[in-house]
Amino acid sequence: MANYSTNEFKAGLKIMLDGEPCNIMENEYVKPGKGQAFNRVRIRKLISGKVLEKTFRSGESVEGADVMDTELAYLYTDGEFYHFMNNETFEQIAADEKAVGDNVKWLVENDVCTITLWNGSPITVTPPNFVELEITETDPGLKGDTAGTGGKPATLSTGAVVRVPLFVQTGEVIKVDTRSGEYASRAQK
Amino acid sequence: MQWQPTTSHQQRLARADLLHQIRDFFYTRQVLEVDTPLLSRGTVTDVHLAAFATRFNHDSSGQPQDLYLQTSPEFAMKRLLCAGSGPIYQICKAFRHEGAGRWHNPEFTMLEWYRTGFDHVQLMHEVDALLQHTLDTEPGEYISYQQAMIRWAGLDPLACHKPALLEALTTHHIDIDEPDSLTVDGLLQLVFSLVVEPQIGQQVPCFVHGFPASQAALARLNSQDPRTADRFEVYYRGAELANGFYELSAPREQRQRFIQDNALRLTAGYPEMPIDEHFLAALEAGLPDCAGVALGIDRLLMLKTGASCITEVLNFGIDRA
């Protein structure tokens, strides 16, 4: 993998740090008029998810990380691995529990997810922004509560628990925003 | 091709207005506008200032000459002062062979002025007046470099050694590889930039004076406390806006500093730079007692218009140059 000098730093660039692939979130060039130049960088470690700030001497080089995003449809889990398929080439890839992490609760069969690959292996799985899931359990609420005030917890088919308005009932399919974990609406029939 | 300017027409109007305000300010104060060449045979020796170089193939000596684009008009303007110009100012392009960023473009517009008979304290007050005139700021606050470092970084810059500086990096969560290989001044600059700067000049412009003698540049050392130099910097809302000196006028000391700089450059692995002999010859003839300051006009314009990146105030930043 190529090396990048600090001159090439920008948001979205993938570099290696402490043996872990990272994404540069922000890069600021710091150069006092009469002083040494530095690059102040905000970085997300792509495996641990940790965000940290790091300072580089300007002109320094760092190793690039071979990281790419690919869009794959979720197929099934065999209990150990989560299997995804490229809908065009039908090529399949298996991601482990670590890569899927908490997002396991948003995996819906046939939904197209973003799989981040490092050296060809999945390191993170990002579900679509919105998924549709069936409510398997929620307290019966009062009918006619359309304002959505208050709300109640509902357990979905994947085990995820979200707050839903009182008028939504067990057996209904709802749309959830996976970024916030919040109820968005009832699913379109 | 992205050929379009990155400015809005509103921005271009604001620049024209600002330049008018500045010229008005100096006209009223009877400071003379001057013009000096951008190209020079000699250049700066500062370890952390890099000049663009070009080759002149038509020199009257018959030999090709290296010419340097100025990093500021300082040497040429001081030659005018030595020739008896009296108080002068200049608005010009300056060039620094370094990276671009939110506050940086390798080619930028500089306002530089010199006041004969002023020391750095009087000049700080004049910079303050200019900021009030152009940015409508409240009067600035004044703090010494030492006080600022003690207050915000818990570090006395005049009485600390490397271990204390390295510890300060840890305390302030500054994560850099091999910090030990940085010089004391490099560490001080890092702590000042990342810890002190974000804290100062948020409400009103902040004038920081009395930089360590090792960062004197072209300022004279303070007559009371020679551990410090009569150098100041102005910070306002995240921008390092201006740098000024009570000017060193002793030719021998000036030459010594250039030689010292070049030695430091060699240690750091940078090439030695040709000393500006025209400038030193002028100092021999005598520089009147004066203070001078350079101020970044693009940054001033950013602050005036609330721009978040310098390319918003430059028609064509380096990427579109």
TrEMBL record, chain A:
**Keyword Lipid metabolism (UniProt):** no
Q: Where in the cell is it found?
A: Cytoplasm
Instruction: Summarize the PTM comment.
Output: May be beta-lysylated on the epsilon-amino group of Lys-34 by the combined action of EpmA and EpmB, and then hydroxylated on the C5 position of the same residue by EpmC (if this protein is present). Lysylation is critical for the stimulatory effect of EF-P on peptide-bond formation. The lysylation moiety may extend toward the peptidyltransferase center and stabilize the terminal 3-CCA end of the tRNA. Hydroxylation of the C5 position on Lys-34 may allow additional potential stabilizing hydrogen-bond interactions with the P-tRNA.
- Primary localization: cytoplasm
Annotated coiled-coil positions are none
> Which residues are annotated with the PTM N6-(3,6-diaminohexanoyl)-5-hydroxylysine?
K34
Q: Pfam families of this UniProt entry?
A: EFP, EFP_N, Elong-fact-P_C
Q: Which PANTHER family match?
A: ELONGATION FACTOR P, ELONGATION FACTOR P (EF-P) FAMILY PROTEIN
**What name appears for this protein in its UniProt entry?**
Elongation factor P
What organism is listed for this UniProt entry? Salinimonas sediminis
Q: What is the lineage of its organism?
A: Bacteria, Pseudomonadati, Pseudomonadota, Gammaproteobacteria, Alteromonadales
- Encoded by which gene? efp
